[in-house]
Amino acid sequence: AHSGEVFIFINRNNNQMKLLHWESGGFVLYYKRLEQGTFAGSTSTKLQINWSDLVLMIEGIQIIKSNKKRRFYLE
Fold first, then answer.
1. Distance between terminal CA atoms of the chain?
2. Is 70 within a domain?
3. Residue 29, domain extent
4. Has residue 65 been placed in a domain?
5. Is residue 11 part of a domain?
6. What is the pTM of this model?
7. How much is the average pLDDT of 43-68?
8. How far is it, in rounded angstroms, from Cα 46 to Cα 32?
9. Which pLDDT score is estimated for 64?
10. What is the pLDDT of residues 24-54, one digit of tens each?
11. Dist. CA 42–CA 65, nearest whole Å
12. Residue 68 belongs to a domain
């Protein structure tokens, strides 16, 4: 749990989310409750998602299928 993982818990109604992660000194718990609507996705599966998809999910943006494009930087 010290390598930056965030553990996500969504209730059965898909309208409450808790995020748990470690910071120096202890665990931090974030909680979000939706007044309307639900979070996308199933609560019965264990998956790994990247940080961008997590932020989109918290903001209520549903991604059906996303492909991350390779970026090349010129110097």
1. 36
2. no
3. 6-59
4. no
5. yes
6. 0.65
7. 73
8. 19
9. 66
10. 888 999 999 988 888 776 556 777 778 887 8
11. 15
12. no
Sign of CA dihedral 59, 53, 10, 38: positive
The single-letter code of the amino acid at 51 is W
Confidence of residue 14 (pLDDT cuts 50, 70, 90): confident
Burial class (CB in 10 A: 0-12, 13-18, 19+), 23: exposed
Structure tokens given for 14 = 């898909």
Residue 5 φ/ψ, nearest 5 degrees: -65, 150
Number of compact structural domains in the chain: 1
Closest by CA position to 38, among listed 8, 65, 58: 58
Give, in degrees to the nearest 5, the angle at Cα 3 between 43 and 69: 70
